């Protein structure tokens, strides 16, 4: 390949947008950024490795989209408004066409959310992407995992299980399910709107049970979930899968990038207004209770005992 590291960086720099709070973007030893006074800076980073998070032959645009989407989802779960990102790329060879494809997807999502790519690193090595995203949140509106209180409602945005169903069904998955897997929608507007209203929040990346479990652990509470209230998309409801498996996928599938949040029942109207204002569907799926366990209940109140907890990189062999 004729392209050098510097050719690749120049291609990236030529396409990166520049917000007015980017004093100096790509091209120097560090970016210079002007965070707004009085707001907290929310910072998050995620790595996507070949053969662990994606296959080498994945469409680069879908990969670029997802690389940014997972971090915007983390910012959303903090109630933060995204602003900037850094992208570190490790490539086996200087493949400008592949990098252009990656940027197509990444910058499309960045533009939708007014995010500027302000720097990064480009190296040779096994295919890997690391994205760091920055956002702003008012101190009183930050959504943390440790604020859930006994008696709070538990809410979930959108629908659960679609991406996991697409992964399971492979070539048999319908287009809507596949889209959920390849181009997840980070719930940025909902996260920002719920700031100061929700008592705790997390994004559902490893499965509802696992991620709600993190809220419970950090808030020192338990939870009760009602299976019949879990939001399922028409595509998942229509998938050729046994009903039990659909429930498993909604509880433990992962890669949903929806928000799971808690809020006092006294704030139901405000939650609903925040969801409406951000054009985000959301439903109540359970209650915060005393204890440390998550109980999953069927419609008739009987206990569900089927589910594994979610994905842990070091507990199970890699998935894609
Ligand atoms: P240094 O050697 O000082 O780390 P680099 O040559 O790595 O500088 O980077 C030069 C400039 O290009 C820096 O502003 C850096 O942030 C930017 N950059 C490098 N790789 C990327 C990338 N993959 N995406 C965005 N910006 C990048
Ligand atoms: Mg560098």
- The chain-level mean pLDDT equals 93
Terminal CA distance: 28 Å
Number of strands: 12
SSE succession: HEEEHEHEEEHHHEHEHHEHEE
Shape summary: globular
What does the radius of gyration come to? 20 Å
Helical run tally = 10
Q: Beta-sheet strand percentage?
A: 15-25%
Hetero groups: adenosine-5'-diphosphate, magnesium ion
Task: Note down, in words, how this protein is organized.
The structure is a single chain. The protein has 320 residues and is of the alpha+beta class. Helix content is 33%, strand content 24%. The strands form three sheets. It has a six-stranded mixed β-sheet, with helices on both faces. Strands 3-6-4-5 form a four-stranded mixed β-sheet. A hairpin with a 7-residue loop joins strand 1 and strand 2 (32-33). It starts with a helix and ends in a 23-residue tail after the last strand. It binds adenosine-5'-diphosphate and magnesium ion. Adenosine-5'-diphosphate binds next to helix 1, strand 4 and strand 5. Adenosine-5'-diphosphate (ADP) is lined by residues 9, 12, 26-29, 87, 89, 117, 119-122.
Please outline what is shown here:
The protein is an alpha+beta fold and 320 residues long.
SSE diagram, text form:
Layout: H1 5-15, E1 22-24, E2 32-33, E3 40-49, H2 60-77, E4 81-91, H3 96-112, E5 116-124, E6 128-137, E7 153-157, H4 162-169, H5 175-182, H6 188-194, E8 200-204, H7 208-219, E9 222-226, H8 234-237, H9 243-252, E10 258-263, H10 268-277, E11 282-289, E12 294-297
Parallel strand pairs: 4-5, 9-12
Antiparallel strand pairs: 1-2, 3-6, 4-6, 7-10, 7-11, 8-10, 9-11
Bound molecules: adenosine-5'-diphosphate (ADP) and magnesium ion (MG).
Adenosine-5'-diphosphate is lined by residues 9, 12, 26-29, 87, 89, 117, 119-122.
């Amino acid at each position: 390949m004729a392209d050098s590291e510097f050719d690749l960086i120049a291609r990236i720099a030529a396409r990166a947008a520049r917000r007015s709070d980017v004093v100096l973007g790509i091209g120097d030893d560090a970016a210079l950024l002007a965070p707004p006074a009085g707001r907290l800076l929310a910072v998050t980073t995620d790595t996507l490795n070949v053969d662990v998070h994606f296959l080498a032959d994945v469409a680069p645009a879908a990969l670029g989209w997802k690389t940014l989407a997972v971090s915007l989802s983390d910012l959303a779960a903090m109630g933060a408004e995204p602003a900037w990102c850094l992208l570190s790329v490790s490539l086996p060879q200087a493949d400008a066409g592949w990098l252009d494809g990656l940027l197509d997807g990444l910058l499309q999502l960045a533009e939708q959310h007014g995010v500027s790519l302000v720097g990064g690193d480009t190296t040779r090595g096994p295919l890997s992407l690391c994205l760091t995203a920055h956002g702003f949140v008012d101190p009183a509106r930050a959504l943390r995992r440790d604020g859930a209180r006994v008696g709070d409602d538990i809410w979930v945005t959108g629908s659960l299980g679609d991406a996991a169903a697409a992964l399971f069904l492979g070539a048999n998955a319908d287009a809507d399910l596949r889209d959920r897997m390849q181009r997840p929608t980070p719930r940025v507007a909902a996260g920002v709107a719920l700031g100061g209203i929700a008592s705790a929040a997390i994004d559902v990346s490893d499965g509802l049970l696992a991620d709600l479990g993190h809220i419970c652990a950090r808030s020192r509470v338990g939870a009760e979930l009602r299976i019949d209230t879990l939001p399922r998309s028409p595509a998942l409801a229509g998938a050729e899968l046994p009903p039990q498996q659909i429930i498993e996928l909604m509880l433990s599938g992962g890669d949903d990038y929806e928000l799971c949040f808690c809020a006092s029942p006294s704030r139901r109207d405000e939650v609903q207004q925040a969801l409406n204002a951000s054009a985000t569907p959301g439903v109540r799926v359970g209650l915060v209770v005393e204890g440390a366990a998550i109980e999953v209940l069927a419609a008739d109140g009987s206990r569900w005992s089927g589910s594994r907890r979610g994905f842990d990189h070091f507990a199970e062999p890699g998935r894609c």
